[in-house]
């Protein structure tokens, strides 16, 4: 008798969960208008209200209302801002001799970042004092990953990355990126300070790349063989499963670059004037479950990650059998 009552109770909770989750808003898409004088803005990373990226040939910081140009002293042809953490930003620029350089901007001054004895250094992610990226010891050499804590440079290569390791982003002690195996196939990965975890979307038969991370959420791209060429598509990984959202806009394709909590920045491509390709930046916001829904789940003894709606479906499937 008690088991029947318990099951009826769980069914009631399931029905309430279904109703409340159905009231949740759909994901939203916010187009990022380019700065004055430019036709595009490519956002690479987001942290709170701060978004960094590139427009034309220079790096930019966007705070939600104002664009600030980021060009280290001695920049010759171009620069870009790749990652932001609070007031600290990392990116690249070409110096007056045409050399590729990486920089750290702390809100007031620039510092050049150069891995000791490397021919090129590319800083791609920052979280607090920790900076990650990749370097090469020769112009034609393979990529090696690095972690820089402000005083010490540490090489970090995937054990299976015999053809190269690229570190893309960092969140706390978690690092994501890409490695090339012995056959040259690209794989995404998550490194948690102790273990290397492969992050490969099953649909990515021709390659995977984990680009951004925030907590347990990873965004990246997977590649497969199309009709006449390779095709890349974006994914969201929540620690258990991959999802493939759509933007609801007419485009040739889109990609995700960075993530902060439930907000993802990326670009989609369209054909502009003169049959040229145009990139449009956007913020894709994943809806959070309503507060009342979370309260019901907590009361029912259910714990789900904020993005893991599939857990609700799994729960419904179990209790309604």
Descriptive overview:
The protein contains 3 helices and 24 strands. The chain starts with a helix and ends with a helix. The protein is 13% helix and 46% strand. The chain has a 4-stranded antiparallel beta sheet with strand order 1-24-23-22, with no helix packed on it. Strands 2-3-4-5 form a 4-stranded antiparallel beta sheet, with no helix packed on it. The chain has helices at residues 2-22, 291-299, 309-319, and strands at residues 28-32, 42-47, 50-55, 58-62, 67-70, 79-85, 88-94, 100-105, 110-113, 120-127, 130-136, 144-148, 153-155, 165-171, 174-180, 186-191, 196-198, 207-214, 217-225, 230-237, 242-243, 253-260, 263-271, 277-285. By secondary structure, the chain is mainly beta. The longest helix has 21 residues, at 2-22.
* Spans of at least 5 consecutive residues with low confidence: 20-24, 303-321
Taking the sheet with the most strands, its summary is: 4 strands, antiparallel
For the largest sheet, list the strands in their spatial order: 1-24-23-22
| Average pLDDT over all residues | 86
DSSP strand content: over 45%
Structural class: mainly beta
Helix content: 10-25%
Distance between termini? 18 Å
The counted number of beta strands is 24
- H/E series: HEEEEEEEEEEEEEEEEEEEEEEEEHH
Total helices: the number is 3
Radius of gyration: 22 Å
* Mass-distribution shape: globular
């Amino acid at each position: 008798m008690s088991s029947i009552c318990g099951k009826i109770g769980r069914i009631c909770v399931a029905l309430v969960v279904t109703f409340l989750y159905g009231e949740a808003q759909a994901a939203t898409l916010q187009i990022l208008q380019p700065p004055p004088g430019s036709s595009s803005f490519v956002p690479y990373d987001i942290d709170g209200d701060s978004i960094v990226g590139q427009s034309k040939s220079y790096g930019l910081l966007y705070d939600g209302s104002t664009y600030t140009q980021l060009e280290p002293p001695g920049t010759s042809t171009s620069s870009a801002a790749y990652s932001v953490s609070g007031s600290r930003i990392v990116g690249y620029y070409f110096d007056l001799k045409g050399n590729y350089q990486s920089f750290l901007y702390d809100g007031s001054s620039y510092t050049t970042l150069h891995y000791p004895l490397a021919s090129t250094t590319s800083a791609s992610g920052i979280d607090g004092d920790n900076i990650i990226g990749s370097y090469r010891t020769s112009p034609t050499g393979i990529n090696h990953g690095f972690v820089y804590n402000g005083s010490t440079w540490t090489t970090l290569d995937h054990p299976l990355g015999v053809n190269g390791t690229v570190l893309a982003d960092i969140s706390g002690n978690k690092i994501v990126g890409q490695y090339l195996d012995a056959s040259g196939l690209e794989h995404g990965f998550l490194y948690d300070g102790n273990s290397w975890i492969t992050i490969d979307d099953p649909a990515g038969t021709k390659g995977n790349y984990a680009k951004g991370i925030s907590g347990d959420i990873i965004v990246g791209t997977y590649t497969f063989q199309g009709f006449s060429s390779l095709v890349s598509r974006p994914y969201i990984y929540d620690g258990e499963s991959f999802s493939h959202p759509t933007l609801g806009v007419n485009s040739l394709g889109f990609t995700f670059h960075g993530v902060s909590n439930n907000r993802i920045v990326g670009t989609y491509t369209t054909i502009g004037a003169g049959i040229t390709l145009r990139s449009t930046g956007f913020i894709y916001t994943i809806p959070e479950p309503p507060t009342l829904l979370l309260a019901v789940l907590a009361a029912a003894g259910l714990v789900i990650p904020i993005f893991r709606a599939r857990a609700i479906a799994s729960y419904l499937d179990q209790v309604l059998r």
